[in-house]
Amino acid sequence: MVEQNTTDEVVEKLRIEITRKINRRKRRRRLQLCLVSFVLFLGIVVAVVLGNQSATIYVEANSLEIFQDSEKPEFNIQVTVEGKSNLVLDKDTGYTVESLREDIEEGIAIGIDCELVPSDIDGEEYQEGTYVIDAYLAEEYQEKLSNEWKKKIRIEIVDGNIEVKNKLGYWEDDTFISWDSEVVKEQWISSQGDTYYIDQSGHKLEDTQLQVGLMCYTFDSEGKLISSEPYIDPDKPTIAITYDDGPSSYTYELLEVLESYDVHATFFMQGASIKEKYQDTLIKMLEIGCELGNHSTTHADLTKLSSSEIEDEMDITSGKIEALTGELPTVMRPPYGAVNQSVKDTVDFPIILWNVDTEDWKTENPQDIVDHILEEVSDGDIILMHDTKSWTVEATEEVIPLLIEQGYQIVTVSELAEVKGVELQDGVTYRFIE
Ligand code: ZN
Predict the structure, then answer these.
(1) Mind telling me the catalytic residues?
(2) What's the 230 CA to ligand 1 centre distance in angstroms?
(3) Is 246 in a helix, a strand, or coil?
(4) Tell me: the pLDDT tens digits for 232-248?
(5) Cα of 46 to ligand 1 centre, how many Å?
(6) 188 close to 204: Cβ distance less than 8 angstroms
(7) Is 0.70 topped by the overall pTM?
(8) What is the pLDDT of residues 278-290, one digit of tens each?
(9) Which residues contact 363 (CB under 8 A, 6 or more apart)?
(10) What residues contact residue 3 under an 8 Å CB cut-off, 6+ apart?
């Protein structure tokens, strides 16, 4: 019995041993099969990648920074090839990946666009911000890429961007720092399409109004300028400066002086001098808020003319002014200040005389004119000058900032009347307006 048992056990052990060996072999074979399959798969993948797309061209638009008043910049791209650059894309022409790279680099195969938003009407400056530089393959190449070149080459394009920076500086809360690190004071700032004013303490004005010259500016709670309206302060001394006998070759320059100080004047023009070449001058008068006046046609003493002759003197000049500007004069000044009842009855304008005569036609010295005005001037005055003399332009340039410093508002005759509550009437003479 014992003998029999032992033999059975040995046989059983052998059976188990053989089964294990068989299983082990099976497992090894399965593993080998797996490995072979994996290697085969990898081979196929590599073959597909190498065989079908043998090169990649990377195109990257270079990012850049400019100031808003710079000219539109040149956009540059970086082109690199990965893979076979000598691969022939077109057998007939021998066009290779390298040829394509060159065509991209030279801008033949690629377009670059960047739409910079202008910040002013002239389009000379750009609005600050970050803009995308869009690089794209030319249509013809795009088509080849998705057809005959499809399996040979890949092109990857990365857009760039352009940072447009404010020309003056940058905001730090409600202060504005210039690019040379100074806190900006008493200055207008144009930023992101809005206008701000930085006061003398270096902060932007918010929720308030600012009076500069003859304008009143209103700012919202963020400091953005929301309106600018002409405003003459009735509590401030106000005077009218008037110029006779023009227009002349000095008038335009004079207007630029008035404009730079944001002040107004009245021009009594004589018809004989109103020529087409002065059209820009007359239009500028209106544009900067000056007043057009009639000073007769031939500079005649109107008291020596008949009513119909006076009418002609007025009408011809008014017609010339209207022809060049589209506007009629609103006031008149008789040559030499000569007025009689006939003149008063005939002219359809308020008759504007003066009470401060600079006698600028007599002197050639601008300082004399300046001294004369500063000595005599007071609230409500009408000052007489002539825009036919170069020294009068010089005197104007000198005297205006001094008058402003003394608190004077410098306006047209009609504005002076309005702020003083006087209604100007036709045929009535005015030497000053209080
Ligand atoms: Zn005159």
Answers:
(1) 244, 386
(2) 30
(3) coil
(4) 999 999 999 999 999 99
(5) 97
(6) no
(7) no
(8) 999 999 999 999 9
(9) 369, 391
(10) none
